[in-house]
């Protein structure tokens, strides 16, 4: 049993994982290397980094989250469900349970539709290909306790730094709920 499972290892999912793991929550990220960031040749608007490729940015994120104990699993998620009071994620390899589940991918939104969420085109992304959960606030918390949405799927704009910040906010919110008090991390 994990405390936190995150489906999607792009900037939002990895940012969320950094904060949950640093708060002492067992955290696993499922990813299969199809993040949109990997397709970006050069990012010029990431504060503090004049230029970086999406692949290099994700490489640095992965190194950092691994160093704080996040488990990175290169497994494709085939299903997830709410098995009250937990969530179950099934990959091609096996099934895992957790207390908090973060959906940070646009690849398979059908389970969200199955749970009654309206998934529509994210108008903040010019391609028209990216989906978002309609009616969700920027904090990413859904009406299902313990289920969060991160990144572009939350309705965030298509900028890596914005998606990462929204994912970090989700991670802090989960850490706060798990601790029962405001979570603050400053090293």
The tally of helices reads 4
DSSP strand tally: 9
**Residue ranges: pLDDT <50 for 5 or more in a row?**
none
Q: Can you tell me the CATH superfamily?
A: FAD/NAD(P)-binding domain
Q: Helical content, roughly? A: 25-40%
Tally of structural domains: 1
CATH topology: FAD/NAD(P)-binding domain
Order of helices and strands: EHEHEEEEHEEEH
Hey, roughly how much beta strand do the residues contain?
15-25%
Query: At the first level of CATH, what is the class?
Result: Alpha Beta
The chain-level mean pLDDT equals: 90
Structural category is alpha/beta
Q: Calculate Rg over CA atoms.
A: 15 Å
Shape: globular
Descriptive account of the structure:
- Strand 1, helix 1 (11-22) and strand 2 (27-30) form a beta-alpha-beta unit.
- The protein is globular, with a radius of gyration of 15 Å.
- The protein is 27% helix and 24% strand.
- The longest helix has 20 residues, at 160-179.
- The protein is an alpha/beta fold and 187 residues long.
- The strands form two sheets. Strands 1, 2, 3, 4, 5, 6 and 9 form a seven-stranded mixed sheet that branches.
- Helix 1 (11-22) packs parallel to helix 2 (54-67) and helix 1 packs parallel to helix 4.
- The chain has helices spanning 11-22, 54-67, 110-114, 160-179, and strands at 2-7, 27-30, 71-73, 77-83, 86-91, 95-103, 119-121, 131-133, 147-149.
- The two termini are 28 Å apart.
- The chain has one domain (2-179): FAD/NAD(P)-binding domain (3-Layer(bba) Sandwich).
